[in-house]
Amino acid sequence: xxxxxxxxxxxxxxxxxxxxxxxxxxxxxxxxxxxxxxxxxxxxxxxxxxxxxxxxxxxxxxxxxxxxxxxxxxxxxxxxxxxxxxxxxxxxxxxxxxxxxxxxxxxxxxxxxxxxxxxxxxxxxxxxxxxxxxxxxxxxxxxxxxxx
Length: 148
Known about the structure:
It is built from five helices and five strands; from the N terminus they run E-H-E-H-E-H-E-H-E-H. The chain is an alpha/beta fold.
Protein backbone atom coordinates (compact mmCIF):
# COMPACT_ATOMS: atom_id res chain seq x y z
CA UNK A 1 0.00 0.00 0.00
CA UNK A 2 1.36 3.40 -1.01
CA UNK A 3 0.95 6.17 1.54
CA UNK A 4 -0.06 9.53 0.04
CA UNK A 5 1.77 12.36 1.76
CA UNK A 6 0.30 15.84 1.83
CA UNK A 7 2.15 18.99 2.88
CA UNK A 8 0.41 22.15 4.04
CA UNK A 9 2.30 25.30 4.97
CA UNK A 10 1.56 28.53 6.74
CA UNK A 11 2.30 30.99 9.49
CA UNK A 12 -0.71 29.93 11.60
CA UNK A 13 -0.64 33.01 13.81
CA UNK A 14 -3.76 33.33 15.96
CA UNK A 15 -5.36 30.00 15.12
CA UNK A 16 -8.86 30.38 13.66
CA UNK A 17 -11.55 28.35 11.81
CA UNK A 18 -10.01 29.13 8.40
CA UNK A 19 -6.81 27.36 9.49
CA UNK A 20 -8.77 24.34 10.70
CA UNK A 21 -10.70 24.18 7.42
CA UNK A 22 -7.46 24.40 5.40
CA UNK A 23 -5.88 21.56 7.36
CA UNK A 24 -8.99 19.36 7.31
CA UNK A 25 -9.34 19.78 3.54
CA UNK A 26 -5.64 19.10 3.07
CA UNK A 27 -5.84 15.91 5.14
CA UNK A 28 -8.70 14.62 2.96
CA UNK A 29 -6.31 14.53 -0.01
CA UNK A 30 -3.98 11.90 1.46
CA UNK A 31 -3.04 9.54 4.26
CA UNK A 32 -0.44 11.60 6.12
CA UNK A 33 -0.55 15.36 6.65
CA UNK A 34 2.72 17.16 7.24
CA UNK A 35 2.43 20.81 8.22
CA UNK A 36 5.36 23.18 7.84
CA UNK A 37 5.03 26.19 10.15
CA UNK A 38 6.83 29.32 8.97
CA UNK A 39 9.81 30.52 10.98
CA UNK A 40 9.37 33.93 12.60
CA UNK A 41 12.30 35.33 10.62
CA UNK A 42 10.87 34.15 7.28
CA UNK A 43 7.49 35.88 7.58
CA UNK A 44 8.07 38.91 5.38
CA UNK A 45 4.87 39.15 3.32
CA UNK A 46 2.70 40.29 6.23
CA UNK A 47 3.11 41.67 9.77
CA UNK A 48 5.43 39.74 12.07
CA UNK A 49 3.60 36.93 13.90
CA UNK A 50 2.20 37.75 17.33
CA UNK A 51 2.84 34.23 18.65
CA UNK A 52 6.41 32.85 18.62
CA UNK A 53 7.17 30.00 16.20
CA UNK A 54 7.48 27.35 18.92
CA UNK A 55 3.99 28.17 20.25
CA UNK A 56 2.52 28.19 16.74
CA UNK A 57 4.18 24.82 16.07
CA UNK A 58 2.80 23.33 19.32
CA UNK A 59 -0.74 24.45 18.46
CA UNK A 60 -0.59 22.98 14.96
CA UNK A 61 0.93 19.72 16.23
CA UNK A 62 -2.00 19.32 18.64
CA UNK A 63 -4.66 19.45 15.92
CA UNK A 64 -6.49 16.25 14.95
CA UNK A 65 -5.87 16.37 11.16
CA UNK A 66 -2.11 16.91 11.61
CA UNK A 67 0.17 13.86 11.59
CA UNK A 68 3.50 15.70 11.61
CA UNK A 69 4.27 19.36 12.32
CA UNK A 70 7.70 20.89 11.77
CA UNK A 71 9.23 24.33 11.56
CA UNK A 72 10.36 25.51 8.16
CA UNK A 73 13.99 25.83 7.21
CA UNK A 74 15.84 29.03 8.09
CA UNK A 75 17.07 29.66 4.54
CA UNK A 76 15.57 27.20 2.03
CA UNK A 77 11.79 26.72 2.01
CA UNK A 78 12.19 23.67 -0.22
CA UNK A 79 14.51 21.74 2.13
CA UNK A 80 11.66 20.23 4.22
CA UNK A 81 9.77 19.43 1.01
CA UNK A 82 12.80 17.50 -0.28
CA UNK A 83 12.95 15.53 2.97
CA UNK A 84 9.21 14.75 3.08
CA UNK A 85 8.81 14.04 -0.68
CA UNK A 86 5.05 14.71 -0.67
CA UNK A 87 2.59 13.65 -3.33
CA UNK A 88 0.54 16.81 -2.84
CA UNK A 89 1.29 20.32 -1.58
CA UNK A 90 -1.70 22.39 -0.57
CA UNK A 91 -1.81 26.15 -0.42
CA UNK A 92 -4.51 28.25 1.18
CA UNK A 93 -6.87 30.46 -0.79
CA UNK A 94 -5.08 33.61 0.37
CA UNK A 95 -1.48 32.42 0.38
CA UNK A 96 0.73 34.51 -1.85
CA UNK A 97 2.20 31.61 -3.87
CA UNK A 98 1.97 31.82 -7.65
CA UNK A 99 0.96 28.23 -8.45
CA UNK A 100 2.76 28.16 -11.82
CA UNK A 101 6.01 29.47 -10.35
CA UNK A 102 5.72 27.04 -7.45
CA UNK A 103 5.25 24.09 -9.83
CA UNK A 104 8.32 25.19 -11.82
CA UNK A 105 10.43 25.60 -8.65
CA UNK A 106 9.41 22.11 -7.54
CA UNK A 107 10.17 20.61 -10.96
CA UNK A 108 13.58 22.33 -11.04
CA UNK A 109 14.36 20.53 -7.76
CA UNK A 110 13.14 17.16 -9.07
CA UNK A 111 10.07 17.32 -6.83
CA UNK A 112 6.89 16.20 -8.52
CA UNK A 113 4.16 17.00 -6.00
CA UNK A 114 0.78 18.09 -7.27
CA UNK A 115 -0.08 21.63 -6.13
CA UNK A 116 -3.65 22.09 -4.90
CA UNK A 117 -5.15 25.39 -3.78
CA UNK A 118 -7.69 24.90 -0.99
CA UNK A 119 -10.78 27.09 -1.17
CA UNK A 120 -11.92 29.72 1.28
CA UNK A 121 -13.61 28.91 4.56
CA UNK A 122 -17.10 30.24 3.88
CA UNK A 123 -18.54 30.66 7.37
CA UNK A 124 -17.69 33.89 9.12
CA UNK A 125 -15.57 36.96 8.63
CA UNK A 126 -13.09 36.10 11.38
CA UNK A 127 -11.25 33.42 9.41
CA UNK A 128 -8.22 35.69 9.09
CA UNK A 129 -5.58 36.57 11.67
CA UNK A 130 -5.49 40.12 10.28
CA UNK A 131 -9.25 40.55 10.69
CA UNK A 132 -9.13 39.12 14.21
CA UNK A 133 -6.42 41.62 15.20
CA UNK A 134 -8.44 44.46 13.64
CA UNK A 135 -11.54 43.36 15.56
CA UNK A 136 -9.60 43.22 18.85
CA UNK A 137 -8.20 46.71 18.30
CA UNK A 138 -11.67 48.00 17.38
CA UNK A 139 -13.35 46.34 20.37
CA UNK A 140 -10.69 46.95 22.99
CA UNK A 141 -8.80 49.90 21.57
CA UNK A 142 -5.07 50.40 21.84
CA UNK A 143 -5.48 52.69 24.85
CA UNK A 144 -7.78 50.38 26.79
CA UNK A 145 -5.22 47.73 27.67
CA UNK A 146 -5.50 46.14 31.10
CA UNK A 147 -2.72 44.33 32.92
CA UNK A 148 -3.00 41.13 34.89
